[in-house]
Amino acid sequence: MDAVTGVYDARKSMFVERLIREGEEGRVDFDILHFLKEFNGLSNYYTTSSCSGRVMLISAHSLSFAKGRGLAKVVAKWHRPVTLGEVLRALDRGSNLWLLARGPILHVVARDLESALELAGLAKEAGFKRGGILSVKEWGVVVEIESDDRLDVPIKINGELITRDNRELGEIVDAANETLMFGKIRLTRLIRLIESRFFGRDYGHYYDEPVPYRVFKRNLQGG
């Protein structure tokens, strides 16, 4: 074993141990935990961070928000569709609040450039338009896979809600959930491609046509 291989394997072992520990602590998104464990069992890859998508309420000191210490903070976060009631109960957590939805993001270290390019190609095939190879290090090639599914809506400005009509607020929440679910559908496609390529699973020509969350919700309600 050469020095580079030794460093890669040592880092992989460290991150896999962290994944297992954080999974047991409930700190890994439940809907991708099983896949992450299996994927990290591949010799040529390991993940350093992952998120299957989230809906968030952001409190900002000004009417706009930006990342950075003291500029904005997350006051509520869900990695699943959120209800209007959950959002309403969190509206007292700031004077300027934004409702955000973000798609999946994964950071993966590949053992070599060939493996990195293969994974990046699968991500493109699954519909991930953002990301690619971030850096090439002696100990591996860092690949970012990021969905461009996102939504940003201000719902409280200077202490006043943009609307006090719960029906209108519900439409905004549904739009956030729809954005979230479209990203998760994209991630499901990637997982199937990875499982087909590396684990020999055959999903045939099944294609999951996205259904808008609002249509899905109405169908559940029988309306």
Task: Report on the architecture of this protein.
- The protein is an alpha+beta fold.
- The chain has one domain (52-221): 2-Layer Sandwich (SSo0622-like fold), CATH 3.30.1960.
- The chain has helices at 3-24, 33-39, 84-88, 113-126, 166-199, 213-221; strands spanning 45-51, 54-60, 72-78, 97-102, 105-110, 130-137, 140-146, 150-157, 160-161.
- The strands form two sheets. The protein has a five-stranded antiparallel beta sheet, covered by helices on one side. A four-stranded antiparallel beta sheet has the order 1-5-7-6.
Concise description?
This protein has a single domain (52-221), classed as tRNA wybutosine-synthesizing-like (SSo0622-like fold, 2-Layer Sandwich), CATH 3.30.1960.10. 41% of the residues lie in helices and 26% in strands.
Give the ordered list of helices and strands: HHEEEHEEHEEEEHH
CATH architecture assignment: 2-Layer Sandwich
Question: What would the CATH topology be?
Answer: SSo0622-like fold
DSSP, total strands:
9
The largest pleated sheet is described as:
5 strands, antiparallel
Give the N-to-C terminal Cα separation: 63 Å
Percent of residues in helical segments? 40-55%
Mean of residue pLDDT? 90
| Name of the level-1 CATH class | Alpha Beta
- The percent range for strand residues is 25-35%
As a whole number of angstroms, the C-alpha radius of gyration is 20 Å
Fourth-level CATH superfamily: tRNA wybutosine-synthesizing-like
Integer tally of domains: 1
Shape: elongated
Note the total helix count. Answer: 6
Helix/sheet category: alpha+beta
Instruction: Give unreliable regions as ranges.
Output: none
